[in-house]
UniProtKB/TrEMBL annotation:
Organism annotation: Vulcanimicrobium alpinum
Record's protein name: ABC transporter ATP-binding protein
Keywords: ATP-binding, Nucleotide-binding, Transport
GO MF annotations in UniProt: ATP binding; ATP hydrolysis activity; L-isoleucine transmembrane transporter activity; L-phenylalanine transmembrane transporter activity; L-valine transmembrane transporter activity
Source domain of life: Bacteria
Entry-linked Pfam families: ABC_tran, BCA_ABC_TP_C
GO biological process, one term: D-alanine transmembrane transport
The keyword Transport is annotated on this UniProt entry: yes
SUPFAM superfamilies referenced in this protein's UniProt entry, alphabetically: P-loop containing nucleoside triphosphate hydrolases
Residue span, ABC transporter domain: 19-266
GO-annotated cellular components: plasma membrane
């Protein structure tokens, strides 16, 4: 495709939404965790998905990344239908994620954890990049060098040789983000990236999220820390009982009566 065609496509994607969710349904037995959800994430935005506990946020992320199968509805990413795609194809299409509970290989080094995130973009398979002779030497060197660059980008320069489990909690979360970035995603899904962080770690995270956005990576994040949500988000979608109750910029969301009602006694005041 020529450059003009790519530019036109990029504009079309940003106008119509890089990620378009329509009528999404996910049930667990008698519980409808996500109930006819419509949501649009514009290309280039930091988009937050918020809502009270149990409102369906993590389930939505899990369906987008095909950890769970949708029971109905459609998810289009840059126009392509994701529902029915296996999770590795979704990763290859350009969507990466982190998890609410950190999922690092604790005994492996920090840089090796980040290298693993790269496997969707290399010819070598999962883990084989770490085995001598398992990948081409040149590819392995390039993968290691770009993993080191990503560690510097997330503020963990010099931590590459430590075992992942030896790092403080907040640093482990940043390793997870580096690992997700290693797959060069266009859309990065973050499930409660500030959970368990102290205020200093959260401030560092806010700065990192802004730098990721500056790279042109679109972010969709679930977060309970309203200070983070209100300071980094371009748009916010609010869920309650699996349904979309509001979508808009932070100031409009903070004033929305339905949102305030859903959060009565909750944490929106933190904004
Ligand atoms: N694997 C599962 N099996 C059965 N029920 C589930 C499962 N995952 C989620 N649920 C239910 O679906 C509903 C939505 O849960 P979900 O974890 O998506 O909410 P959430 O908004 O992410 O909550 P939190 O903010 O507490 O993480 C809840 O009623 C939950 O109990």
């Amino acid at each position: 495709m020529n450059g003009l065609g790519e530019a036109a496509n990029a504009i079309a994607a940003s106008e119509s939404g890089l990620l378009e969710i329509r009528g999404l349904i996910k049930r667990f037995g008698g519980v409808t965790a996500v109930n006819a959800l419509d949501m649009t994430v514009r290309g280039g935005d930091v988009h937050a998905l918020i809502g009270p506990n149990g409102s369906g946020k993590t389930t939505t992320l899990n369906v987008i990344s095909a950890l769970y199968h949708a029971d109905g509805g459609s998810i289009r990413f840059d126009g392509a239908q994701l529902v029915g795609m296996p999770s590795h194809a979704i990763a290859k299409a350009g969507i990466a994620r982190t998890f609410q509970n950190i999922r690092l290989f604790g005994e492996l080094s920090v840089v090796e954890n980040v290298m693993i995130g790269r496997h969707v973009r290399t010819h070598a398979g999962f883990l084989s990049a770490l085995v001598p002779g398992g990948a081409t030497a040149r590819e392995e060197r390039a993968t290691r060098a770009s993993a080191q660059e990503l560690l510097a980008f997330v503020g963990l320069d010099g931590a590459g040789d430590a075992t992942a489990r030896s790092l403080p909690y907040g640093d482990q979360r940043r390793v997870e983000i580096a690992r997700a970035l290693a797959s060069e995603p266009r859309l990065l899904l973050l499930d409660e990236p500030a959970a368990g962080m102290n205020p200093t770690e959260t401030d560092t995270l806010i700065a990192l999220l802004r730098r990721i956005r500056e790279l042109g990576t679109t972010l969709l994040l679930i977060e309970h820390d309203m200070n983070l949500v209100m300071s980094v988000s371009d748009r916010i979608t609010v869920l309650n009982f699996g349904q979309h109750i509001a979508e808009g910029p932070p100031d409009a969301i903070a004033r929305n009566p339905d949102v305030i009602t859903a959060y009565l006694g909750g944490t929106l005041d933190a904004a």
